[in-house]
Amino acid sequence: MTTDHKAETVIIEREFAHPPEKLWRALTQPHLIEDWLMKNDFAPVAGHKFNLRGEWGGVLDCEVLAVEPHTTLSYTWNHVHENPAYDLRSVVTFTLTPTSGGTHLRMEQTGFRPDQTQASGGARFGWQAFFDKLETVLLR
Amino acid sequence: MTTDHKAETVIIEREFAHPPEKLWRALTQPHLIEDWLMKNDFAPVAGHKFNLRGEWGGVLDCEVLAVEPHTTLSYTWNHVHENPAYDLRSVVTFTLTPTSGGTHLRMEQTGFRPDQTQASGGARFGWQAFFDKLETVLLR
Question: Which of A104, A129, B60, B88 is the most exposed, having the fewest neighbouring CB atoms within 10 Å of its CB?
Answer without folding.
Answer: A129
